[in-house]
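=== RUN LOG ===
request id: a7f3
mode: sequence -> structure
chains: 1
length: 610
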Amino acid sequence: MSLDLSVVFGLLAAAIGMFAWGRPRVDAVALIMIVALPLTGILTVQEALAGFSQPSVVLIAALFVIGEGLVRTGVASRLGDWIASRTGGSSGRLMTMLMLAVATLGSVMSSTGVVAIFIPIVMRIVMRLRIAPGQIMMPLSFAALISGMMTLVGTPPNLVVNSALLREGYAGFGFFSFTPFGLPILLLGIAYMTVARRWLADAEPEEAGRHGQPTLAQLIRDYGLIESSHRLRIKADSPLAGHSLEALRLRGAHGLIVMAVERPRRFTSTFLNPAGETVLRAGDSLIVHFAGSEESMLALAARLGLQHSPLRDLDTIRKPHPIGLAEVMIPPDSPLSGRSVLEAEFRSTYGLTVVGLRRGRTAWGKGVLEEKLQAGDTLLLVGPWEELRRSQRGKRSFLLLSQPADLEELSPAADRAPQALLSLAVVIVMMVSGVLPHVQAALVGCLMMLGFRCIDMDSAYRAIHWQTIVLIGGMLPFSLALQKTGGIAMAADGLINLVGEAGPYALLASLFVATALTGLFISNTATAVLMAPVAIATARELGFSPYPFAMIVALAASAAFMTPVSSPVNMLVMGPGRYRFGDFLRIGVPFTVLVMVVSLALVPLLLPVR
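=== RESULT ===
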């Protein structure tokens, strides 16, 4: 092994280590490698930056814009509502229709974006039908991963593999080259999850209001706030009566976080928005969160003229629409990830107060404000619905899960859905027919979305997941560095020496296993960047066709079913589905093996190795 190759392997090992550790961010790691590779003298600065000039990188950015156009026009959410109206109350039919819809939509837009759109829709449906969310959320994420196997543009690894073929002088894949493999795997996934979801049905169906919304009682229970939540009725002589919440400053002065204000009516009671201008009256009951001890609470209640009663009897607060309380989730690309609530200045930035945190099935008690937030965490927020409405416009730092019935539809260009669908259809027709190169077809689609005002320029720039763009552009130079130093040839020779004598099926199986296992530690895009050149070099050295080897790498890169950290879509569903790490192992590992078996049966059949 030469010194240059040792240096490249050292940098690659460092990058993989940082990817696995999760620090720094993956795009920062890519930037570090862009700087480091030219310093070694192996690549020039121009070669290190050449990844950003690849057509596949521009194509991925354009597809993010087209996907955002579908979101802003409400196409995706309308599809979810249509599914909800046709389930007939059957959980099996709901799961099948959702998997088909997510796989179809995800084949032309970001799978992470599709899951982010569908999670609130699914939460509303399962609450209305009284189905445990855990039975539906994992099928949702599996369908999103399978969507990457449906078309050439279904996921960035497909485009990375296709670019590797083009760089080596081969023709590349067509738009629907992946469909003969993805469609059987999707049908297999539906059949598998029909049985396997029963293993996830250990949670009782969620309690819900009349319109499928979570109740205040349910949210308090889910976030472990029963012991720290209290009802405080304002007595006639209380100094709080007649003053607004803003003037009283109950959180800063007394540590009381007001989650709701219950005001008695003639024959019933109603919940008021706990906004700053809300003026308290004698007889009102405050539903509050207090982190102190029971003794401290009793002493504070006596001092403020409040009648205290703990919230252990949740039946007394079952209201279908608690005002000012909502559940949200942190998406993978959120600026809140890695920061605490205090560091994010949540109250001043969003006008909302965090009162609870859940990570998977674990509800955090104390230390909520100081805990570093992670992708997939769900937060319980208190604040005006107008602030929640505003937070869901443009680039969202968090996704609203428990969307109230009176919150208006967040599709700013809903009247332009036909134009968005027309733009998408034009792009697909141009890609399939080959009238224009794929990247040009996608750019035409972006211009059509802009021309039809389905999306504006600012929203288009915000829609691009720059972290993915920088990751791909920063990792692509590794392929060139490994090629120049002989690393790819050495890896191909090692694979051939290890299993070459066993035949092409053994080579394909080895490539699938190596790609899938590598994807457990680093992103599937980075995995494709590393494995695609090895696969193509192996095929060329043995005189085989490169297409089955490239295809097996692409399929394996999308088979990220085994752990919640294998893919952003798995992290997204972990909180709403109340999953543990072991749930993905129990369900994902057998399915990955099935996908490998199907892939090994179909790939050599449809893409002969000779």
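=== NOTES ===
The two ends are 32 Å apart (CA to CA).
Residues 227-311 form a domain with the Alpha-Beta Plaits fold (CATH 3.30.70.1450).
=== END ===
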